[in-house]
Design goal:
11 helices
């Protein structure tokens, strides 16, 4: 592959995977391998608890964590929120943070690793196709709706970063979700196709040729080719052109690193990613919609674009967290607190 094009693809990958960062707990020291600050370390009666579960989705084992609120009683009914993780992220990172914080507000929540990623099954590893990620969200709804204590009539959806874009797509047709929220939404298809901030428009056809060649190689039994598989030095990270690249790389490689989390995805996935857009048919969303983003996020343009196109709902709100970048909405306590408080009010009103 042409090095220049590979580097551009890597940068687009880094941005797509970014979620949040802070000096958090070492996954090796947490019995649930959670890496976010304030993570549960043990299940204590009367407090928020976490349960690791596995279920089948189209023949693939899906690994998930279910969070239950304090004083959880399986004979009662609770509003419930499905949480979709960022591209390349896993349930033990930012998705788990938001799932736990919502459980603290009285919700049952679920965060699952996408099929072909994290601790979930599927071969080859790190396939990242929109149809799979959207199906993951439907699958979480399938499983959690049957979980003891869940009120399936009060089911909400929260998508973070890339999971936010896929949540918008899933909610267009899955009317089990009574309300939808995103945090720092990332439109994976648009970025894979056009580059971050539409900076790679002149290389679209070349990158499609590379993805096609990768698919042909796989079909012929050759090695699986990956995009975004790299390890940058501190100096290289500092030279990345956007906040989301720099802060995202630090989050996934340093402060919140988890062995199941990786930037890479199969090159052939681009055949599906580059023809996808999270805002296609977004007018089909007719339920309450809340979109949260940092006012200083260089990814804000994607949230604003999707929000403007979401004309099918009469109940929508764009909530900006003043001063926050994309990544900071995932770890800076004052920003996370604002987001969680807003989400709590939103789900409290709509569920």
């Amino acid at each position: 592959m042409n090095l220049k094009i590979f580097n551009a693809t890597l940068l687009a990958t880094v941005i797509g995977i970014a979620s949040g960062g802070t000096m958090a707990a070492d996954y090796k020291k947490n019995p649930f391998t959670l890496v976010y600050d304030g993570a549960i370390t043990e299940n204590v009666k009367g407090q928020v608890n976490i349960r690791t579960v596995t279920y089948k989705l189209n023949g693939i084992d899906i690994s998930a964590n279910v969070y239950t609120p304090a004083n959880y009683d399986s004979s009662k009914k609770y509003p419930t929120v499905v949480v979709a993780h960022p591209n390349g992220g896993v349930k033990e990172q930012v998705a788990g943070l938001y799932a736990q914080r919502l459980a603290e507000q009285g919700y049952i929540t679920i965060a699952a690793d996408a099929a072909y990623q994290g601790a979930s099954g599927g071969q080859p590893r790190n396939v990242d196709k929109p149809s799979y990620r959207i199906e993951d969200i439907h699958g979480m709804a399938d499983f959690i709706s049957k979980y003891a204590g869940v009120d399936s009539a009060r089911l909400g959806l929260l998508g973070i970063c890339g999971g936010g874009g896929y949540s918008l797509a899933a909610a267009q047709t899955d009317k089990r979700f009574k309300s939808i929220a995103t945090v720092s939404m990332f439109n994976s298809g648009r970025v894979r196709r056009n580059g971050y901030m539409d900076s790679q428009l002149n290389t679209i056809q070349t990158r499609l040729q590379q993805a096609s060649a990768a698919r042909a190689q796989e079909a012929a039994g050759g090695a699986i080719l990956y995009a975004g598989d790299a390890n940058l030095s501190d100096e290289q990270i500092a030279k990345l052109p956007f906040d989301l690249y720099r802060q995202g790389y630090e989050y996934y490689w340093k402060t919140h690193a988890h062995p199941n989390s990786t930037f890479k995805y199969t090159m052939s996935s681009l055949l599906d990613l580059m023809r996808f857009d999270a805002t296609d048919h977004i007018d089909l969303i007719d339920k309450p919609l809340l979109m949260i983003a940092g006012s200083k996020a260089d990814s804000l343009y994607m949230t604003e674009d999707a929000f403007a196109k979401a004309t099918g709902t009469k109940d929508k709100e764009l909530f900006l967290i003043n001063g926050a970048t994309h990544i900071e909405t995932y770890w800076v306590p004052k920003y996370v607190n604002q987001a969680v408080a807003k989400l709590g009010k939103f789900y409290g009103k709509t569920l």
